[in-house]
Specification:
This protein is α/β, with parallel strands linked by helices and 475 residues long. The protein has two domains: 348 residues, 3-Layer(aba) Sandwich (Rossmann fold), CATH 3.40.50.12780; 107 residues, GMP Synthetase, Chain A, domain 3, CATH 3.30.300.30. The chain is built from twelve helices and 26 strands. A 13-stranded mixed beta sheet has the order 2-1-8-7-9-10-11-12-13-20-19-15-14, sandwiched between helices. It has a five-stranded mixed beta sheet with strand order 3-4-5-6-16, sandwiched between helices. Strands 23-24-25-26 form a four-stranded mixed beta sheet, with helices on both faces. The longest helix has 18 residues. The N and C termini lie far apart (60 Å).
Length: 475
């Protein structure tokens, strides 16, 4: 049962209370239940949902997972050709698995707004879109119920909270937040699209107590909120996913929302929640470190090498998980490396180590720099640089070197006032071991990003070797 039985419960217990709000438009629990129930009879066995954030989205998603139905949620900003390719791939996969009749319906489908069997898949998840078809995996209803129970306990979500997730519901972070609130009986807010002014208005006027978002959004909201005098004192928790918060973002968020516990966590779409920590109001953070926190409730962690053998405490290797939240595996796109299993322990290839029960996350093995026999993870270098005053953002990479194999280079986007190479060198001395420190520093006019907004270390190297004016060497 993911959340439909709970939706029925809240509709019966408090029908007129608000369930979902999208830019001031609201649906009560009874209205949401009825809107979803009306759509169930026409919902196919496997549906594809691709649309902007709306009240209709919430009802359509609920209907799309009723009974034994399965639903795939696509990003509506993906090219139409890519969406069509995914839709056809899904249809073909399920045609081979179980022939259907009519408009994609099977005789086993019910017309009731009820949850299907706990161990049956209900969600077809997709990795982030690229120019090729992304990988697709499935999740069971039970796995999401276990995830809900763990995240509600870890984040302290209550029915009195008002959660605002301003990003697209097509993203797993926000889709999960919607379903989590429906399960917990907690009010969920979103916007048709992310807009700083609209988020500030919601925080000021809608009694938002909880934010779910990515670090770049948090920095924008915090810095502009401080400049504009937007009162965020009513926010009690901020849940941030995507990457560890840098010093500038964390400082701005602490000042803008002084009463909020700021949660950072590590997870993956295929693994769900893994480990995290909450920084309480007034608590001093440890800047520049790689520690992400302790395991979520119900999660066991191990660090295993490439053959599945345990490594000594403090040594790095594959971050492996055993929990009831892990996905079923892939419908397509599995190359044998994306989700590996070592005797019941699952990993997506992220590297890290355990120290005193805390998980330290280093990054993907494919990003690793090998310099003079030392393994260096760019993520570790970037976190250290992000804690240096005068740095707005940082990126590190390995540049080919005849003597060392690769040498560590780093580039920063300076904040107001700028920063020198000497300041950067001094800033990482107490954080990074000598053989992990960058040998060259560059100042950037902008971050090297792909056309989909993802950080590209290869693009940084191209700028450096091509003497691109966007990357200026710091003496």
């Amino acid at each position: 049962m993911p959340f439909l039985d709970r939706l029925q419960r809240w509709a019966g217990e408090r029908p007129d209370s608000t369930a979902v709000v999208v830019e001031g438009q609201r649906l009560g629990w009874e209205e949401l239940r009825d809107a979803a129930a009306r759509r169930v009879p026409a919902a196919p066995a496997v549906s594809v949902l691709s649309e902007e954030n709306s009240l209709h989205f919430a009802a359509a998603f609920a209907a799309g997972v009723a009974g034994e139905r399965q639903c795939a949620v696509l990003d509506p900003t993906w090219p139409q050709q890519l969406q069509d390719s995914i839709t056809e791939r899904i249809a073909e996969t399920f045609r081979r698995a179980a022939p259907v009749t009519g408009h994609g319906r099977t005789d086993a489908l019910t017309d009731e707004l009820t949850d299907g069997p706990p161990d049956a898949p209900f969600l077809i998840g997709l990795t982030s879109g690229t120019t090729s078809v992304p990988k697709a995996f499935t999740r069971t209803r039970r796995s999401w119920q276990v995830s809900f129970d763990a995240s509600i306990e870890f984040f302290g979500l209550t029915p009195e909270d008002r959660t605002l997730a301003p990003g697209p519901l097509a993203a797993s972070l926000n889709l999960y937040a919607l379903a989590e609130c429906l399960y917990a009986g907690s009010e969920f807010h979103t916007l048709p699209k992310f807009d700083v002014g609209d988020v500030h208005a919601a925080v000021s006027h809608d009694g938002i107590t909880r934010l779910v978002l990515i670090p770049t959004m948090l920095r924008l909201l915090s810095e502009r909120g401080l400049a504009g005098g937007v009162d965020a004192s009513g926010i009690r928790s901020i849940i941030c996913a995507g990457s560890k918060l840098d010093a500038r973002t964390l400082d701005a968020a602490r000042r803008w929302a002084p009463n909020a516990t700021i949660f950072e966590y590590y997870g993956a779409s295929e693994l769900s929640f893994v480990a995290g920590a909450g920084l309480q109001p007034g608590q001093q953070p440890r800047l520049g470190g790689t520690g992400i926190g302790r395991p979520f409730p119900g999660v066991e962690l191990r660090i295993l090498d490439g053959s599945g053998s345990p490594v000594p405490d403090g040594s790095d290797g594959n971050v492996c998980v055993r929990s009831g939240m892990v996905s079923d595996g892939y419908l397509w796109g599995d190359d044998g490396q994306a989700l590996q299993c070592f005797d019941g322990w699952y990993t997506v290839g992220d590297q890290g180590y355990l120290s005193g029960g805390t998980l330290h996350l280093l990054g993907r093995r494919s990003d690793m720099i090998i310099t003079a026999g030392t393994n260096v993870y760019p993520h570790e270098v970037e976190l250290a640089l992000a804690s240096v005053p005068g740095v707005a953002s940082a990126v590190a990479a390995g540049l080919a070197d005849d003597l060392r194999g690769q040498r560590v280079v780093a580039a920063v986007v300076p904040s107001h006032g700028g920063v020198t190479a000497m300041q950067l060198k001094a800033g990482v001395e107490d954080v990074l071991a000598r053989d992990k420190r960058p040998l060259e520093y560059f100042a950037l006019t902008e971050l090297p990003l792909t056309d989909r907004g993802k950080l590209s270390r290869q693009l940084l190297l191209d700028w450096i070797t091509g003497h691109d004016p966007r990357a200026r060497r710091l003496g």
